[in-house]
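Protein in question passed on here:
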Amino acid sequence: MLHFKHKYMSPLERKIIKTIVWFDMFSYPLRAEELLWYLYDESGSESRLSDIQLDLDALVAVKRLQTQDELYFLPGRSALVDIRKERHKESLKKISLARSATLLLRFLPFVKSVIVCNVLGYLNAKPEDDIDFLIITSSNKIWTARWYATGFFKLLRLRPTKNQVADKFCFSFYVSTGGLDMKKIALPNDPYLAWWFSGLLPLYDQANYFNQLLEANQWVKKYLPNFMQRYSGGEINKYKVKNKFKCIKKIFENMNFDWCDKIYRHIQRRIMPTNLTSKIGTTNGVIVNDVILKFHLIDRRQDFLDSFSSKLKKILN
């Protein structure tokens, strides 16, 4: 393991190394622009791409980083370049499937935004991965939206099963427009959740709710002060599907009155598997209420943080 002494690196260089180390855990070398977006900087100070590029050149010159095909990585990790390229190709296939699913999801009642999240949001998915969605729903209609979205894809046999995961659609995270601020679900020190936000990829957005989600979570800038720059260009929106046939959706929504959500909540709570219900209130991975539905039986955020901290100590101390 390499050791980089603090005194020989500028503050920005150390931040670059920290960011590289985090994404190294996911076999993901970074371009200079991506380093700007994802730069881990707890000072909250925004950086410039030109400054990052200068420090990247300096780090490469002293062999603290290596570069290939405009990607930057830790010394000895050049194999990650090909890994990223292969995962990029695989991710584009999955994004195509996700867009097809979104063409259906956009018709469903009270589904306001469909967002790809986790590794696929970075276009870093493996062939065996499923397709994870974050769904933004109307306020006070989260259970209704989940009833239709999860139920519809279950009927089509497109949900992950014990024996089939690859390319299946995972609806394990819903948030209503009344609960967009997710700081309340963050751990005391939670860079994972911050980086998770920086990797969101919107596919459908009925009324600018995705931007409302970003604005409601400005606390992310405590860790990643430049993350909003990823969403300032047109590149991030090129996978979106068009918001068509709103009148059809409105008909479905008019058929579901306020009291319907309580019924759907009651039914879904009754049929939830015990491995989920037993975790409610006992883990950060499973959250069940009327503004957030999060069904992650295994919440590895603390594990990632521990691994990240350990790697940094070995490299920087």
About this structure: The chain has a mean pLDDT of 92. The first strand starts at residue 66 and ends at 68.
